[in-house]
């Protein structure tokens, strides 16, 4: 079947495979293949590999020799995604979900648990209900060389934002002070700290903050990470004029926290503001909200207008990278 592959000349194959493995991007379910003078290394995230500068193409490569896939059991290709060793289904029919779960368990995939979405993301803690079809909801997700322990039943986490998180982390300098206002289990904070930044992460979800602390230890950056459970609007009073970099990844309601972001910002601060808007004007509402909150105390310069992904028909998940200068 066709899967995203990094295409390189064979003489660069092992160097490329090792580099991709270090980023946790090698697709272990499919074979590395040589054809027409090119070597094809299957990757688990084509966008992430492209962001790293590799040429990514769709190529027909075989499943790993001797490996039984869910489609081999079912006779048709099921749809699922993975976070760590948990396979996530989105099936409305309980019998079909059960059949897919049994096939995944019977297959040779490196999966310990299978869950089916039982609700949308809900509440201010942004968690879902799950039907657990095998195993449980706790796992360790690996992304760009970092490990994140989490429990899907108690925290929100999206592997689809891996490339976006890496894009932002690549901008961080060692002497920065970075504040993630809705930090979750730490997928922004951890790589920021690994680059030498001093970081604060807050979240209303106490379970997420507990995982953030665990993940800071797990990734060797606990000395540069302060994790605080609570409303960022209350925490901010202790960090007025502190941040060189702010992350606001709460796209449905980040605008309600812009006054707090302005209070946190130091004299020169980069703000990563996430929003979901209609595709006719995806950036305008967020930019206007930022200017209304920051001006005239700060001059506002939009450095990047970036579409992260399509969120729904005619709706875009976007990011504004904005520099606030007092």
Automatic annotation (TrEMBL):
The keyword Transmembrane does not apply. Keywords: Cytoplasm, Methyltransferase, S-adenosyl-L-methionine, Transferase, tRNA processing. It comes from the Archaea. GO terms for molecular function: methyltransferase activity. Residues 80-326 form the SAM-dependent methyltransferase TRM5/TYW2-type domain. PROSITE patterns: SAM_MT_TRM5_TYW2. PANTHER family: TRNA (GUANINE(37)-N1)-METHYLTRANSFERASE, TRNA METHYLTRANSFERASE. This is Class I SAM-dependent methyltransferase. It comes from Halomarina salina.
